[in-house]
Amino acid sequence: MYQQMIFVNLPVTDVDTSKKFFTELGYSINPQFTTDDCACVVISDTIIAMMLSKQRYADFTKKQIADSTKTSEVLLCLSAESREKVDELVDGALAAGGTATGETQDHGFMYGRAFDDPDGHTWEVMWMDPAAVQG
């Protein structure tokens, strides 16, 4: 069965810094699609984050590239299998050089935290009780 994938392309200041940050979070780098100006971060079988140098990113758009430390261009949200996994991933991001952002969201059936990566891209990590989703 076909599974649709998402490829998130993000401009970064330093590709090596991004590779180090995301591998410290436990993600892998696909060397087949990684060069000096691009890192292919494998988040899951269906989620790939392409960390592109700003010069390489500019090859794909005629728009001005946002300074993600000052403006919000996108909010990325990853699911987690438990509240503990939310904390594990966000705490790992903070230890690897990320910055805490926003307030912890705890609604009982849903729990989330967020961090900014070294380039200021905001990553939310959320857990939702499966029983709440089923209605």
From TrEMBL:
<protein>
    <submittedName>
        <fullName>VOC family protein</fullName>
    </submittedName>
</protein>
<dbReference type="InterPro" id="IPR037523">
    <property type="entry name" value="VOC_core"/>
</dbReference>
<dbReference type="InterPro" id="IPR029068">
    <property type="entry name" value="Glyas_Bleomycin-R_OHBP_Dase"/>
</dbReference>
<feature type="domain" description="VOC">
    <location>
        <begin position="4"/>
        <end position="128"/>
    </location>
</feature>
<dbReference type="Pfam" id="PF22677">
    <property type="entry name" value="Ble-like_N"/>
</dbReference>
<dbReference type="InterPro" id="IPR053863">
    <property type="entry name" value="Glyoxy/Ble-like_N"/>
</dbReference>
